[in-house]
From TrEMBL:
Entry annotated with the keyword Transferase: no
Bilayer-crossing regions: none
Classification via PANTHER family: CGI-121 FAMILY MEMBER, EKC_KEOPS COMPLEX SUBUNIT TPRKB
GO terms (BP aspect): tRNA threonylcarbamoyladenosine modification
Protein name, UniProt field: EKC/KEOPS complex subunit CGI121
Cited Pfam families: CGI-121
Length: 175
């Protein structure tokens, strides 16, 4: 797990980002999210659609900004983080694409606020899988699907160029 300071929103606390592999309870987690279980206090993102930690922080910062200005489009900041991965304004489509499915085995968990120890304890208590280093995203990410969802065209498997295009698409959402 890695923790990052939300530079523009220091009052919100840090963003704690953890990559889980071989997750066995995705159906239960998904059902809790659908039921809007308030005890599920973290965002769960399909890791196949995450380029790198910067990608996560773009979504987390935008969600923190929207929360600060009372502009959340979803029911809480955790679902807002998942929604903010998308370049479209369609909430249900965004949550389906970037959220977890019953068959998801690789999950990025994002928890805002609290200490690193509290965050990792919460995540490990709720997500049944192996905690691995975030650099394993290189092995997990599906560049073809990312290109398709962000409509970037063919960037010849170049994650740096793709991240630039994705950041632009995320920033222009809603304009």
């Amino acid at each position: 797990m890695e923790s990052y300071k939300l530079e523009l929103h220091p009052v919100r606390g840090q963003a704690h980002v953890c990559l889980f592999r071989n997750v066995t309870n995705a159906p239960e987690l998904r059902q809790r999210l659908i039921n809007q279980d308030a005890t599920m206090a973290c965002a769960l993102v399909n890791a196949e659609l995450v380029i790198n930690p910067f990608h996560v922080m773009l979504a987390a910062n935008r969600a923190a900004h929207d929360e600060k200005h009372n502009q959340l489009k979803t029911h809480n900041i955790n679902s807002e983080i998942v929604f903010d991965f998308s370049s479209t304004i369609h909430i249900s489509q965004s949550l389906k694409r970037f959220g977890i499915e019953d068959t998801t085995t690789d999950i990025i968990a994002v928890k805002l606020g609290g200490t690193s120890e509290e965050a990792i304890a919460f995540m490990k208590d709720n997500i049944k899988g192996d905690v691995v280093a975030l650099d394993q995203l290189d092995q997990i990410r599906d560049l073809k699907r990312i290109q398709k969802y962000y409509q970037t065209g063919d960037v010849k498997e170049d994650p740096v160029k793709l991240m630039q295009l994705v950041a632009g698409a995320m920033a222009l959402k809603g304009l």
